[in-house]
Specification:
binds magnesium ion; Fumarylacetoacetate hydrolase, domain 2; globular; binds 2-oxoadipic acid; 13 strands
Amino acid sequence: MSLSKEQIAALAEHLENAELNASAVKKITDDYPDMDFRDAYNVQYEIRRRKEARGIRIIGMKMGLTSRAKMEQMGVDTPIYGFLADYFERAESGEISVKDLIHPKVEAEIAFVTKSPLRGPGCTAAQVIAATDFIMPAVEVIDSRYENFRFDLVSVIADNASSSRFFTGGQVLAPMGTDMRTIGVVLEKNGQVMEVGASAAVLGNPATAIAMLANQLAERDEYIPAGSTILSGAITAAIPVDAGDNVTLRAHGMGSVSMRFV
Ligand code: OOG
Ligand code: MG
């Protein structure tokens, strides 16, 4: 750990302002090259605390960089997590205004909704399946607060793993009887296929990403509460979107989720 309490508070305010004003900033490790993972999550938890102090609810969590496609796209090699605030969620078939965002990209994901708490260490994919109420297709809209979407792991963790908005919808599935590895996904923009993949791209099984989240949270004595919505991470690379774009995610056996960027 290299950051003082005051530095953590100042960095959290700086990054949250970048989010709220939709203005890009340079990555924070340029000024704090000695920051470590613990410092980075401390900044993320301080952003979370600031939001909760204003009455914003935390409705779930997300894993990021859980597929090879994403790790290669962003040039980093370790899965990370972030939190999902209530105002990140958008209704299926809804609109999303790009003027509130810096340089949004969309990702195809599988969302898990839990019915009982999940705690690490030692949390397994089987325990995740037992604690899952249902899964559904999700489109995450990521929006790094860093210039040109360029960062290192420590910087992106502090920036709440680029979280900004997400859509869920389509057809929910019970975890029992579903092979979570073979869910085929097609991500379309303006009627054109942009990315295709299968859910096993996420750590072999997206349930493993949720178990990894529980185990990473345990390092801070945190856990996944019942009733959480958790994004398991992008199956394919993310694609940039702009005003006027229509995006549809089709997931095999799970219907589709669509949205319009305005
Ligand atoms: C970090 C967030 C990655 C995912 O699903 O892999 C992420 C980023 O690429 O900006 O949400
Ligand atoms: Mg994501």
